[in-house]
Amino acid sequence: MGRAHERPHFGGFHVQAIVCPTCEVLDVKTLGMRGGPYQREGLGVATAIVRCRRCGLVFPNPFPFTPSPAALYDEPETYFRLHDSETKVRGNRLIVRRAIQLLGTRAPSVLDVGSGRGEFVRAAQLEGLTDVVGVEFSPHMVEDAQRVLGVHLVCSTLEEYAQANERLFDAVILSAVIEHVYDPDTLMRSVANSIRPGGVVYIDTPREPNLRTYVGNTFNWARRTRAVYNLSPTWPPFHVFGFNPRALRALLSKHGFQIISLSVSGNPGVLAAGPLAGRKLSGSAATVFGHVANVLRLGDNMTVWARYGGDECGQVRERFKN
Ligand SMILES: [Zn+2]
């Protein structure tokens, strides 16, 4: 198949200075270094990690771009080795029910962006929805969705899909997407262009920074190393943007969305991984750590529902001008 040759190796990134995509200026504090010699297993390439002083967004700068981003995700079995499809389908059914509740309609139209192996689309079908579109830019993920769950996905980016299909959905789902894209500002503009006024968007993304990164970074600072634990820009899972409640609120309001609910949570098991792995953190200590993270709202996962205000927000939008 030659796939190994098509995949960019970790040295295949080219770096370029960027500004905060939300604020459109560069007003940042440098948190430290990540990747290569600054990563415990030597993964990826070294990049500086910064935090926008205005909105709190965390990102690498200069930013490591790759010429073919889809190739980073082209081996579903490797990329999703920690996930279980059935569990994901079950979890997604709850998201579908919440969308139905928020929209007040039994059969909303839904666009799932970055569908991966199609678990959300499958969950929506199981909940009786008939107008569900899943777009996924990795051809191997699309094949896998068809093979494993029998789910048909459209192989494209959101931008390409929106250009080709001028239609508005009741709900847009962004599950584990916004931390991966190279321009979250363009992504949210495309989401706004794909959603009807009064429609809702669901976003699921890691919370950055979180208690785990704060503790790990402080530990490194005490050891006088510049390494930090925020993001994984150049190795799996390729998280390039780190959102927190303030940063997400800023991006959403810029594009005419108002937050309905925002929750931060952490899985104690996951919190004990990363910087604390191998440091003899007992099960009970991990649980306490998880509880502390949740009390402080510094868990490492964040979910948000927001409603699109459309023109009521005074946004002048030029749809599909090209
Ligand atoms: Zn910013």
> Whole-Å distance between the termini?
37 Å
Please mark out the parts with pLDDT under 50 across 5 or more consecutive residues, or reply none: 1-9, 312-322
- What small ligands are held by the chains? zinc ion
- Assign a percent range to the helix content: 25-40%
| Total number of helices | 11
Strand content: 15-25%
Query: Pairing-aware structural class of the strands and helices?
Result: alpha/beta
Q: Count the strands?
A: 12
The Cα radius of gyration reads 19 Å
User: Whole-number average pLDDT?
Assistant: 86
Please give the order of strands in the largest beta sheet: 8-7-6-9-10-12-11
- What multimeric state do the chains show? single chain
Major beta sheet summary: 7 strands, mixed
Global shape: globular
> What is the element string, with H for helices and E for strands?
HEEEEEHHEHEHEHEHEHHEHHE
Brief overview, please?
31% of the residues lie in helices and 21% in strands.
What does this structure look like?
The protein has a seven-stranded mixed sheet, sandwiched between helices. It has a three-stranded antiparallel sheet with strand order 2-3-4, with no helix packed on it. A two-stranded antiparallel sheet has the order 1-5. It has eleven helices and twelve strands. It is 31% helix and 21% strand. By secondary structure, it is of the alpha/beta class. Helix 3 crosses helix 4 (119-126). The protein binds zinc ion.
Offer a few descriptive terms:
single chain, alpha/beta, 21% strand, globular, disordered N terminus
Helices, strands, pairings?
Blueprint: H1 3-6, E1 14-16, E2 28-34, E3 47-52, E4 58-60, E5 63-65, H2 76-79, H3 85-103, E6 110-113, H4 119-126, E7 132-136, H5 139-149, E8 154-155, H6 158-164, E9 169-175, H7 184-192, E10 195-206, H8 211-222, H9 245-254, E11 257-265, H10 268-271, H11 283-295, E12 301-308
Parallel strand pairs: 6-7, 6-9, 7-8, 9-10
Antiparallel strand pairs: 1-5, 2-3, 3-4, 10-12, 11-12
Helix pairs in contact: 3-4
Zinc ion binds next to loops.
